[in-house]
């Protein structure tokens, strides 16, 4: 196992989710934070608002790509955190439904791991801003699970 994989494994074992998110450059770009879900046993992923994320200046709406990025990276992190052994999730299928414009505020995301098998994990995620009952977007993804040290599917 290489040094990066060992650091990631140590962060996962210590449940240092900030360090786990810090290992993914796009998560760092989005400013992604991982929080405990007070209403359940899962995690909430937060993307703090920044002007650079605005896609439509007139509406002050976030760019749809940043919302999609939040959902995809959150699902990827959720699979990584849920796995008992270090297997890196590589996206092979991703679909998103946008339900409303994301306004100039923080976005939150909650993921649900549907299935995690020997080679594939399936995840759903929902994104909202102020009220979880008024989602901004919903996504589904399939991830290929690969051993961290080989680059091959196990």
From TrEMBL:
The keyword Hydrolase is annotated on this UniProt entry: yes
Enzyme Commission identifier(s): 3.1.2.-
Keywords: Hydrolase
Coiled-coil residue spans: none
Domain Acyl-CoA thioesterase-like N-terminal HotDog: 61-143
GO MF annotation terms: hydrolase activity
Enzyme class: hydrolase
Any Pfam family hit: 4HBT_3
InterPro entries: HotDog_dom_sf, TesB_ACOT8-like_N
Name under which the protein is recorded: PaaI family thioesterase
């Amino acid at each position: 196992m290489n040094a990066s994989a060992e650091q990631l494994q140590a962060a996962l074992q210590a449940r240092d989710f900030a360090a786990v998110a810090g290992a993914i450059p796009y998560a760092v770009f989005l400013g992604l934070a991982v929080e405990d879900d007070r209403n359940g046993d899962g995690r909430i992923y937060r993307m703090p608002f920044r002007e650079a994320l605005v896609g439509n200046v007139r509406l002050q709406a976030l760019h749809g790509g940043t919302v999609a990025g939040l959902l995809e990276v959150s699902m990827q992190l959720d699979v990584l955190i849920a796995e008992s052994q270090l297997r890196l999730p590589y996206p092979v299928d991703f679909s998103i439904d946008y339900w409303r414009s994301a306004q100039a505020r923080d976005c939150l995301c909650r993921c649900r791991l549907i299935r995690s098998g020997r080679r594939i994990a399936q995840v759903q995620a929902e994104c909202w801003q102020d009220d979880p009952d008024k989602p901004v977007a919903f996504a589904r993804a399939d991830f290929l699970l690969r051993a961290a040290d080989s680059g091959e599917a196990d």
